[in-house]
Amino acid sequence: MARSGFVALVTGVIFGVGLTLSGMVEPLKVVGFLDVAGAWDPTLGLVMGGALAVTGLAFPVILRRGRPLWAEAFSLPTRQDLDARLVAGSLLFGIGWGLGGFCPGPALASLALGASGSWVFVAAMAAGMLLHRLVFEGRRETARK
Fold first, then answer.
1. Threshold 0.70, pTM exceeds
2. Closest by alpha carbon to 16, among 124, 145, 103, 126?
3. How confident is the model at residue 101 (pLDDT cuts 50, 70, 90)?
4. Within 10 Å of residue 101's Cβ, how many Cβ atoms?
């Protein structure tokens, strides 16, 4: 495994352990956070706030390095516009997150815990990614010819 692949694996494991320790792999945490009119559970917001604070402080410092430790350059998004695909994808993500109680990171971490609902979610997520690839990547290939 290349060094960057190893770093990605270690980073993913650390992320998964953090999600597990914070309880964010529990779908009921997500549902509780979204239930603002009932038994609201603010812990997901606290986890998100902590992540945003660390990112907000660390990101400018890291970008001053000029390049990552194990890559030639930073891979940063260049588009700044909103289009229909981004909005539709965001809506689908939010609906899936609200209904299933999982988003991709916690769902993958839940697989390691053997949570049965995570298997269904990850299978549906993989099917959606495959469908996207078949529909949209096929259109790009056709447009290039």
1. no
2. 103
3. confident
4. 23
Task: Say whether 115 sits in a helix, a strand or coil.
Answer: coil
Q: How far apart are the first and last CA of the chain?
A: 35
Instruction: Of 8, 1, 17, 5, give the one whose Cα is nearest residue 112.
Output: 17
Distances from the Cα of 50 to the Cα of 13, 19, 43, 53, 71, angstroms:
19, 13, 11, 5, 27
Backbone φ and ψ for 103, nearest 5 degrees, come out as -120, 170
Q: What is the model's pLDDT at position 144?
A: 59
pLDDT for the residue numbered 31 = 83
Name the residue with higher pLDDT: 140 or 39.
Answer: 39
pLDDT tens for 12-56 read: 889 888 888 888 888 888 888 888 888 898 988 898 899 899 999
Residue 79 is classified by DSSP as -
Instruction: Measure the CA–CA gap between 105 and 31, rounded to whole angstroms.
Output: 16
Distance of alpha carbon 115 from alpha carbon 96, whole angstroms: 17
Q: Is the distance from CB of 141 to CB of 60 less than 8 angstroms?
A: no
Range of the domain at 15: 3-144
- Tokens for 21, please give them: 């320790």
Q: How many domains does the chain have?
A: 1
